[in-house]
Fold this sequence. Notes:
Largest sheet: 7 strands, antiparallel
Shape: globular
Structural class: mainly beta
Radius of gyration: 18 Å
Oligomer: single chain
Order of helices and strands: HEEEEEEEEE
Distance between the termini: 38 Å
Amino acid sequence: MHCKLWLVFSVWLLLPTSEAGRQMPKLSDKKLCADAECSHPILIARALQDYYPGDCRFIPIRQGQLIYVYAMLKDRGNLFWAGSVQDTYYGQQEARIGHFPSSVVEETHPLMEASTEVKTTNWDFYCN
């Protein structure tokens, strides 16, 4: 009996406790992009305030940072955008694309029209 209990406890300790490597719930079924691959930035935005992400689908943003926006999630009134943060010194922050609320940024430089509707995939919301 003690061996079984010890084995179960040991396996439980080895289970991952983070969200990394997990499929997270989709925030939207569609997104608006500049092209079918969402590879070109739509606009550059500046953060109005700090944003601390609730889970691994989102990126942290500090007030004043520039964000290159690649997609606008469509189903929920464009509440969330996907982009990459540009720090004051290039390379100071690892390049990572993630989601953030559109309400914490202001558009500063439009680059391309977000006229291509693209279906989101599970990979859009995968935590790695």
